[in-house]
Structures are given as C-alpha cells and as structure tokens.
Write a structure and sequence with these properties.
The structure is a homotetramer of 219-residue chains. Chain A has 219 residues and is an all-alpha fold. Chain A has helices at 2-5, 7-10, 16-32, 47-52, 55-79, 87-102, 104-113, 117-146, 158-168, 170-184, 186-203, 212-218. Chains A and B meet through helix 3, helix 4, helix 5 and helix 12 of A and helix 2, helix 3, helix 6, helix 7 and helix 8 of B.
Chain lengths: 219, 219, 219, 219
C-alpha cells in the first residue's frame, strides 16, 4: 500500500495555500477600510457633530466591506468545488486579488469627495468602475473553471454550476448600470452600490454538511 | 469503497475557510490598534514625559485588544462546535466581522478625546455603543446556531450550549450599563470596559484534548 | 497499531505553519501597497485629473503586486514539494519574508519620485536593487532545498527541480540588467520591472491534481 | 466504528485556530514595520542622501523583524509539541500577542529618536523594556506548558523540553542587561538588541521529518 506511506503528507488539499493567501488579502483589504475613518482634531469641540458628519465614510465603509464580503463568499463557493488549482485559475485569482486590494483607494476617495458635487460624480464613477472590474475578474475566474470541467470535483452538479453563474454574472450588468447612473445622480448610484452588495450577500449560499461519511456508514 | 476515492480532498472541515477569513480579520483589527500609538515630534525634547503622556492610548489599546481577544475566544468556542456553516451563520459572521474591524476607529477616537471633558464623554459613549453592537452581533450569531441544532456537532452537550450562552449574553447588559454610566462618568466607564474585557477573557475556556481516538482505541 | 492512536494529531503537514506565516506576510505586503494611493485634497477641484495624475502610483502598485504575486507562486511551488522544513530553510524563509515585506517602501518611493528626473533615477535604482535582493533570497532558499534532497518529497522529479531552477534563477540576471539600465533610462527600467513580473507570473505553473488516490484505487 | 463517522470533521488539530490567529498577528506586526520607513518630500532634491539618511529606520526595521521572527520560531516550536490548548495557554498566548503587536510602536520611536541624544536614551530603554516584556510573556507561556505535562504530546522528550527552555530563558537576562546598558550607551544597546535577535534565530531549530509513517511501514 504505497499510498499509505505518504498519507500524513498528502492530506492537505492542493489549493489550500491559494485559499489561505486569498483569505489573507480579502481579510486585510476589508480591515484596512477602517483606516479611512477618523475625526479631525478640530472636531473635538463638538465631537458628536464630528462623528455624525463622517456619515459618508460609514456608508463607504459598509458598502466596500459588504461588497468584498460578497466577493469572498463567491470565491469560497468556487474554490470549495475545485479539485485543484491549475495555472490559469492561479493567474486569474491573482488578478482578482489585485483588483480587490485596490478597493480601499476608490472607497476612501468616494467618501472624501462627497461634499463637492463635481468631485463626487467623478469619485462615484471611479468607485463603480473599480467594482465593475472586480466583478469582471471574478466572472473570468469562474468562467475559466467552468470551461475546464476536470477542475471541478466529481460531485458538483450542473445545477450548482448554473446557480453560481446566475449569482455572479448579473453583477457585471448592475455595476455598468450603476456607473452610468452615477453620471447623472451620484448619490443614487452610491446607494445602488450598497444595494447590489447587500443583494449579493443575501443570495450567497452557505456550506452544506458533508454527506459522504454518513453515506458510507450506511453502506 | 467510493468514499476513499476522495478522502484526501474531503479531509478539510467545511468551515475552515470561514475560520481562516475570520482569524485574518480578528488578527488585523487587533494589530492595527498599534497605529494609533505615536509620540509627536515635539515631545522629543522630553521623550519620557511624551511616552507617559500617551497613557490613554495604552489604555485604549489594551482594552480593545483584550475585548477583541475575548470575542475571538467566543468565536472559536462557537465554530469548533459546528458541523458546517449555513447561509445565515455566514451572513451573521460577516456582520460580526464588520463590527469588529470597525473598532480601531472608536478606540482611536476615545484615546484622542480623553483630554477634553465634553469630547471624552461623547467618545466613550461612542466606544461603548460600538462594543455593544459587537456583542449583539456575537449573540445573534450564537442564537442562530442554537436555534438550528443540526448545525452543532453531535457530541456537543446541552451543558456546553448553556455555558456559552451564559458567557456571551451578559456582556450585552454590561455594555448597556457601561455606556449609560459614560453619560455621567466617562472615566469610570472607560475603566469598566477594560474590566468587562478582562472578565470575558477570564471566563473563556480553552480546548480540551480530543478524547475520541483514545476512546476508540480502548474499545 | 500505535500510529493510529495519534492520527488526528499528526495529520497536519509539518510545514503548514511556516506556510501560514509566509502567506500572511505575502498577503499583507501586497495589500499594504494600496496605502500609497491617495489623491491630495487640493485635487478635489478637478478630481478626474487628480486621479489620472496618479498614474505612476498605479504602475508602481501593479508592478509590486505582480512581483510579489510571482514570488508567492514560486514560494508555493517550492513548499508544496517539501517533506519538512529544516533549520536552514526556516532561516532563509525568514530572510526572504524580510525582503518581501520591505518592498512597499521602495515602491512608494519610486512612485513619489517619478516627477523629478534625478530623484527618479535614484528611486528606480533603489527599487530594482530591492527586487534583486528578493530574487537572491528566493534563489538561496531554493538552492538550500536542492542541496539537501531528503527535504524533497520522494515523488519530485529531476525535471521538476530543473524547471523551478530555470524559472527562478534568470530573474537575478534580469534585475541586475534592469537596475543598470535604470542608471541611464529610469523610465525604461521601470517598464522592464513590470515586464519581468508579468513574465514570472506567466511562467509559473499551477498545481496538478493529486494522482495518488486514483492510482491506488486502480491498483 | 463510531470513530469513523466523524473522521472528516475531527481531523483538524484542536489548536489550529490558535495557531492561525497567532500567525496572523505575527505576520501583520512584522509587516506593519515597513510603514515607519519613508523619505520626506524635502529629501527629493538629494534622494540618495535621503535614503541613506534613513539608516536608523532600517536598523530598527531589521532588529524588530528578526526579533519577532525569533519569537515566531519559538512559538512554533512550543505549539507543535502541544496536544491541545488549555485555558491558561490561551490567555498567556493572547498576552504574548498583545506584547508582540505593540512592538511597532517602540520600534518607530527608537528610529525617530536616534538623532537626539537624550531622546535616544529614553527610546532605546523603552524599546528594550518592550522586548523584555515580550520575552517574559513567552517564557510564562512555555512555563505554563511545562508545568502541565499532559499538554505535551507523548513523544516529546525531556531533552526537547530542556532545549526549548535553554533557548528561551536566557533572553530575559540579555534584555535586562541590554536595557541597563542603554542607560549609559544607547547606541551599543541598540546594536546588542540586533545581536540578541540574530542569535535567537540562529539557535532556533527547524522541524524534523515526521518519523511515524515510515516507522509504521517498517513494522
């Protein structure tokens, strides 16, 4: 039984490091958002007003946090269905992570620009365009998986594949729409980004209990 | 033996990525706190005084570190009793992480405001309200687990469930109390937050050695 | 069967923590790069111009992200072929991580210096020298593995060893060349660094599906 | 075979999350050190001088990086010998992490203060005192493990226990010595901290190949 010999060493999943690295990037991108929240020293006279006055920053914080949370959920849904991570998935994953870790920049910019009508329009469009690029990178990653079915675990059904496609693809259209909307109504567009993020998280599905061990016991 | 076939691939726990992402967020939130510690260039003339003068920042650092440490311990106590992570747990976990990674902001604010009586009151109330929201998110996560017992591993006892509930629920009341106290005595409330954090960590329980392998050997 | 007794406890790979720590450092180094992106308050009048004006920062961001991504891929390619992590690998890995987590500094400097011809030359040489040191640390790590073949898993072939050597060694020469080029043409050198990073990622190979379980089933 | 039933779920080591959280904190603490490196805008005229002028920051960066690296190695050496993580180990680990993630503050202060003789003395003493506290926390963690031998895996020998004690305890004395030295000769003390860190890493031992599988095959 030569397989036994290396049992302890082979037991980790081939993609575990790609997941660990990605989880790190997602977690840091999401946590760095807090660095854009601060009340200027001058607001100490009336701190309550100073805190409330930061509302665009809270909105931007929540929107980007929930958006990245939704991308993490989609990333998790994809990777737990993979048997291994081939060269193309690795590259597209790196591209996705690059777009995700860029997000704190347009997030901070949008919050900073909110009190100037012209700047706000530009900042909200820039923010939307960044989210659009993240969605495209995510869709490209998923598409490259679907095109090469031997990447997927054998138990993944056609139905699951369609469900993931249906949950990730429409966001591209929504972000195009929201970004066009930002040209005319940046405030409405900013709210729309938050709604897209909330809906994405609401549509995500958790894990299911691994049925195999029980099944094999029954056998 | 079809189960065998995918043995190497199925061996990771279904919730391991949710844990990894959460650990990342907790670890970063806790480590970013240090960024609020710095001595102004002007204090270089009398650096010893400059360092000592930062005491409110050290207090805020320790309070938030120990508070987040306590939340991490509770999170760990919950997740190691789960069989899998369903949709609702995932969402509530994301909400919990959002409130935790927000904490460096009120922490920095509280330290910054400490030398101005009015600002301090507001900052300490804001800090307490943030901690309260974290506790509520944690309790909601645990409640959603308890309500759906098939989420829990079969070996988890009623007693363990009650113990976790008893360790997490009172904090909500304590934070309400401390935040009300902050209206009248912000300094006392600030000390109270530290005491709550210390008691939470003191009440947390470590892991126990997995008894199964030995037990099955004896059999 | 005494081995069985500790099965659950021995199942993790001996190098898993070294990987986890390294993944953390890589992920943070890559995500901290975003902190160098910001538009000054004064650019709010013409934010579109302000955003476009930051192009050297985007270039530096992308170059360093892709470079670190390529190093992570090489690190992963090395570590998944290891049986364990000996003392020397641990030390060289720590050295590699120290050079990698240093990179946000020369990256920010290069972006900052781009509008001053003299400063740019120095900054680009400094950036190239930093990348050169990272490559040397990576090559030293790989060399120390190759010199001690019992570090490698038994299934690793001579061909794989040569392939990794061929993918990592030339970068040292390329970074020497690019850094010398920076003396005369800093702009061209900056572009060259990006090309080296892209080629490194393009040459990296993903994981392959673990063949063992199937093989043993066939037997 | 009831043990089989939960095989997939029990396979992770009970302390894996404590390790993951700790790795995150170590990795972030080490990577945040780079944020203290920056060349002021005014140095762009003579950037080479500006970069060289930052030498105290590089020294502080290297010293703290290698110190934290050494603590990580010691932490890893302790945790891979544990069977599980009890309540006291969890608490002491949290204390250790709190002291480690504090280090970027005294590190930055020491680099900042180096050009003012009085400030330097205070900053170097403060830095040394911080390192001393980290060493004490680490020794306390190890001591609490040694006092409760059932925490240790059965295969850990008396010799290994003594070796870890011998590698970690002397640092307390060295840091006391270096901190006293800083009263009279801060520059020498700063160099001494680096030497202590280098010696700690040099004395650390890597992993050994898990002998069990081979042994059981031979049987």
């Amino acid at each position: 039984m030569p397989r036994r010999k290396r049992e302890g060493m082979e037991s980790r999943w081939a993609g575990s490091r790609t997941e660990a690295f990605s989880d790190g990037v997602f977690a840091i991108a999401v946590t760095l958002l807090v660095l854009d929240l601060h009340v200027p020293e001058s607001a100490m006279n009336d701190l309550l007003h100073g805190i409330v006055h930061q509302w665009p920053n809270y909105l931007a914080y929540a929107t980007s946090f929930i958006t990245i949370g939704g991308i993490w959920l989609a990333h998790h849904a994809i990777f737990r269905r993979l048997r291994y991570v081939n060269t193309q998935v690795m590259r597209l994953n790196l591209l996705l992570l690059m777009t995700v870790s860029f997000l704190p920049f347009p997030t901070g910019l949008a919050a900073q620009a909110v009190r100037d009508e012209n700047a706000e329009r530009v900042a909200v469009i820039f923010y939307g365009a960044s989210l659009l690029i993240v969605s495209v990178a995510l869709a490209a990653l998923w598409r490259s998986v679907v095109r090469d079915p031997k990447l997927l675990r054998p138990e993944v059904t056609e139905q699951e594949i369609r469900a993931i496609t249906n949950r990730s693809t429409p966001n591209i259209g929504l972000y195009v729409g929201a970004t066009v909307l930002a040209l005319f109504a940046p405030n409405a567009a900013a709210g729309f980004y938050l709604v897209i993020a909330l809906v994405t998280v609401a549509r995500a599905r958790g894990d299911t209990p691994a049925p195999e061990p029980e099944a094999s016991l029954a056998a």
